[in-house]
Amino acid sequence: YDTVKKHLKSGMVDWDPGNLTTWVLHHPGQVVLTVAQIMFNRDVVRAFRGVSVPAAVTQVRDNMVDTLNKLARLVSTPMHFYQRMTLEALLIIDVHNRDILKEMIDGKVYKSDDFGWTKQLRYEWNEHTNSCNVLQSNATFQYGYEYLGCSPR
Fold first, then answer.
1. What is d(CA 93, CA 96) in angstroms, rounded to the nearest whole number?
2. Is 55 exposed, middle or buried (0-12, 13-18, 19+ CB in 10 A)?
3. Long-range own/partner contacts, residues 30-33 (CB < 8 A, 24 or more apart)
4. Residue 57 Cα distances to 14, 29, 62, 82, angstroms
5. Which of 4, 54, 92, 104 sits 20 to 30 Å CA-CA off 151?
6. Quick one: angle between helices 53-75 and 29-48, nearest 10?
């Protein structure tokens, strides 16, 4: 519990979307996948709070496509087996997130309490308690910090 939580917090502190490929390769798989999902949720929620929400959500989608392109280029580089498993799993999650954004844009889902958003499984970092929560619909659970490793998707 404490070790996984410590690594997750470290991944949050080190998060650098400008240097994503290095960040992905320098953190354990479970940390990479969880932090990436926390940041996806954070980006979408931030877009909902913007002045021009449709444009902001579209920008999140465009950024996700850019991220997918960076990660796809990384696939062909030499790396350890466990890094490749992490990268493959992250690509699958990010493709799913891109598809969620497309569905939201097509359905004009532009509010954080819209069911088109709340039905998604979302990860959220609480800065005050340094903990991760998992949300879906109106349910919230504390992330269990159990070691899951990084299995293929």
1. 5
2. exposed
3. 30/4, 30/147, 30/148, 30/149, 30/150, 31/7, 32/86, 32/90, 32/150, 33/86, 33/89, 33/90, 33/93, 33/150
4. 25, 27, 9, 33
5. 104
6. 160
- In the chain, the amino acid numbered 75 is V
Digit-coded pLDDT (tens) for 105-114: 999 999 999 9
CA distance 121 to 134: 7
pLDDT tens digits for range 78-89: 999 999 999 999
* Length of the chain (residues): 153
* pLDDT value at residue 86: 94
User: Confidence class of residue 153 from pLDDT cuts 50, 70 and 90?
Assistant: low
